[in-house]
Amino acid sequence: MPSEKSIYNPNPAISRDAYISSMAEYRKFYEESLENPEEFWMRVAKQFHWETPADPKKFLQYNFNISKGPISIKWMEGASTNICYNLLDRNVRNGLGDTIAYYWEGNHPDDYSRGLTYRKLLEEVCRFANVLKDHGVKKGDRVSIYMPMILELPIAMLACARIGAVHSIVFAGFSSDSLAERMFDCQAKVLITADGAWRGEKPLYLKALCDVALEKAEEMGHTVEKCIVVSHLKRVTACAEDHVEQDIPWTEDRDFWWHEEMEDKEPACYPEWMEAEDPLFMLYTSGSTGKPKGVLHTTAGYLLYAATTFKIVFDYKPGDIFWCTADIGWITGHTYVVYGPLANGATSVMFEGTPFYPDNDRFWAVIDKYKVTQFYTAPTAIRALMKFGEAPVLKHNLNGLKVLGSVGEPINPEAWLWFYRYIGKEKCSIVDTFWQTETGGHVITPIPGATPMKPGSASFPFFGVKPTLLDESGVEVKGEGEGYLVFSQPWPGMMRTLFGNHERFESTYFSKFPGFYCTGDGARRDADGYLWITGRVDDMLNVSGHLMSTAEVESVLTEHHRVAEAAVVSRPHAVKGECLYCFITPNENETFDAKLVSELKKLVRERIGPFAMPDVVQHAPGLPKTRSGKIMRRVLRKVALNDRNVGDISTLADESVVDQLFKNRPADK
Ligand code: PRX
Fold it and tell me: Helical H runs in 584-666?
C-alpha cells in the first residue's frame, strides 16, 4: 500500500467545529503558552475548584538546570484542591449527575455490560474511600492496585485521591515478583485486587498471584497490612466450557471482600484538601538499569494538563463517546481512561477484553455498539489487526468516528494509512501522540482540526511544551536535522521526582544535557518543521558511522505487502561497528522465503541507503511482546547474538516465542 500523498489535511467538517480550527489558531495559543505560561494555565485553572486559590506570583517556580541546584518543578504553589472533587462532585453540581461516565464492556460480548453515571460513580468512590479510611489508610499512604479492567479500578483510584492516599497501580500482567518489588519499593499499606479475570479464553487468578507477591514482599522486609479483593470471576461468563473454578486463597484478618466492606458504608465522604504539589500517584516505568523507576505525579499540574490535552487533542465535545483501549495499568490508561475524560465530564467506554476475542473484529464491534466518536489505540494493535484485512472491519458501522489516536511507539506509515483509510474512511483526523509515563500527557501531537497530517509524524508540540533537538555534544540542531529530543521548560503535567530517589530523577533526566529534560528519544525535524520520533536513543545504532534508528528501518520493512510486523536490533559487527538484524512476521497466509528476504534487503537499500542494508533477516512467527504489546528488544538482541542467556522473560505475553526464535535463526556465516 504505497503512500499516495505525504500530507493529509484535516477534514473541513472537523475543523469547522473544532476547539482549535487552524494552524494559525494553534500557533497563537502555542506562542502564548510559552511566553506567558502563568497566564495561559491560570486561565485553564479557572474551570476547576480551588479550596485555596493560587497566588498568581507563585504560579510557576522551577529549576531545570542541575548546575544551578536541585531540579524542582512547582505549579500553583499555595493552592489547594482535591482532584476527585473536581472530577466528580464538580461535574455532578454542574448538572452531569445523570451523564454516563463509563460504559463497561466485558471480555465476552455476552458478559453483562454496565453503565455508570457521574452521580453513581461519586457515591461508589465515597463508599470505597470510607472503606480505605476504616482500614487505616491516611493522606500520603501508598496503596498498590493490581486489577483487571473493571469499574472498581477507577473507583479505587479516585477513592485514594479523595482521601489523599497515593495510588501505585501495577499492570495486572506483571509477575508476582514484579508486584512484590513494587509494593516493597513504595512500602504499600494496602493492596487492592480481584479474584481473577478472563483474558480471551484464559483465566487469570490474580488473587493467588497477589498472595505469592505479598509473601515475597514480607520476605523482603515489608508487610502489606490489608488486601481488598473484588469478586469478579463469578459475575462474568466462564469462557471455557471445561473450566473448573479454583478456590480463592484467603488469609483471615488480612483479606477482605470488596462487596462485604462496601455494604454498610456511607455514600458520602468529605474530600481531603491537598496542596497543589502533594503527590497524586506513582507509576513504575522500566529503567535502563533494570530497576523500575517510581515516576511521581502531583495534584494541580497533572489535573490541568490531563484535562487540557484530553479536550484539545481528541477535540472532545459533550455527547461524544471516547474509547481508549489502553489498560489503566499504564500511563495512557491513567490519563486518558480516568483523569482526562472525567475532568471534562466525558463519557468513555472501558473495555476488559482483547482485540481478538471472540473474534478479530471485536474492536470494530465495540466501536459500532457504543457509537464511539474518538478511538485511541496502539500501533501494535493496528498492525496485528491489519493482518486480517478489511473484511472484519466492513462488518460494522464505524461512521461515528471523528478522531483516531495512536500512542506508545512510532506508527509506521503503512499502519497509519490503513488506520486512516479503513477505520477512519479518510474522514477522520489521526493524532499520533508522542508522550511518556514521565510527561503525564501528550507532549508532541497533531491537533485534529488544525494540523495537516504526515503519516508517521507526531508533528508539533502541545501548549507549554518547548522541544529542542541536541546533538551528542549538546549543541542545538536547528532547522532540518536529527538529534536527542529534550524539553527546555516545564509543562504542568510533567513528573516531579522518582519516588524516594530524587537523585536518580536528576541523573536520569537532567544530567546528560544541563538545562534540559531529556526524553531518551531521538527525533528528526523535517523541512516543514514537523517532528518525527525516531525511537529510543538506546535503540539507535551506528552502522559504519551512520546514526540511524531501528524504528526507521522497521517502518520500511513493514511497507512490504507480505510483512505484518518487523523488529530490528543492532548486532556488533567486526567491520561496520554494528549491523542490522531484522525479525519479520509475515502476514497471515504468507510464507517466509528467500525471495522475501532479498526483496526486503532491496527495499531498505532503496529507501534508506546501502549502509542500512540488513545483514540478517530472520523469520519470526511471533515477536517477544509484553502483555501491553511492547516488543522486548533485549530478547531479540540475545537471539541475534545466539546467546541463550535471555534473563527474566516473565513479563512476556507468550514465553514460547523465544524458543521459536532461537530455532529459526539462520546459520551464522
Ligand atoms: O519511545 C517513546 C515511545 O514510548 C516511550 C514512552 O513509553 P511509556 O512511558 O511506556 O509511555 C507510553 C505511552 C505514553 C517514549 O519514550 N512512544 C510513545 N508514544 C510514541 C512513542 N514513540 C513514537 N511515537 C509516539 N507517538
Answer: 594-607, 633-641, 656-663
407 Cα–ligand 1 center, Å: 7
* 436 CA distance to ligand 1 middle (Å): 5
Interatomic CA distance for residues 376 and 346, integer angstroms = 15
| pLDDT (0 to 100) of residue 412 | 85
Q: Does domain 82-354 have CATH number 3.40.50.720?
A: no
Question: In this predicted model, what pLDDT tens digit does every residue of 490-512 receive, in sequence order?
Answer: 999 999 999 999 999 999 999 99
pLDDT in tens, 448-479: 999 999 999 999 999 999 999 999 899 999 99
Q: Which residues pair with 407 in a beta bridge?
A: 433
Average pLDDT, the chain: 93
Closest residue (by CA) to atom 26 of ligand 1?
Answer: 434
Which residue is closest in CA terms to ligand 1's atom 24? Answer: 410
Question: Candidates 2.130.10.120, 1.10.10.10, 2.30.38.10, 2.60.40.1240; correct CATH number of 36-81+472-537?
Answer: 2.30.38.10
Ligand 1: residues within 6 Å at CB? Answer: 285, 331-332, 407-410, 432-437, 458, 519-521, 533, 536
Q: Give the orientation angle of helix 152-163 with respect to helix 118-134, to 10 degrees.
A: 60
Q: Where are the alpha helices (DSSP H) in 1-46?
A: 12-17, 23-35, 37-45
Looking at residue 56, its amino acid is P
Q: Which atom of ligand 1 is nearest to the CA of 411?
A: 24
Q: What is the CATH number of domain 540-664?
A: 3.30.300.30
**Which atom, in ligand 1's list, is nearest to the CA of 628?**
10
Contacts of 555 (CB under 8 A, 6+ apart): 410, 412, 413, 414, 456
Ligand 1 nearest atom to the CA of residue 519, by list position: 16
User: Where do the structural domains in the chain lie, given as residue ranges?
Assistant: 36-81+472-537, 82-354, 540-664
Q: 313, 436, 532: which to mutate for ligand 1, most atoms within 8 A of CB? A: 436
Amino acid identity of residue 327, one-letter, is D
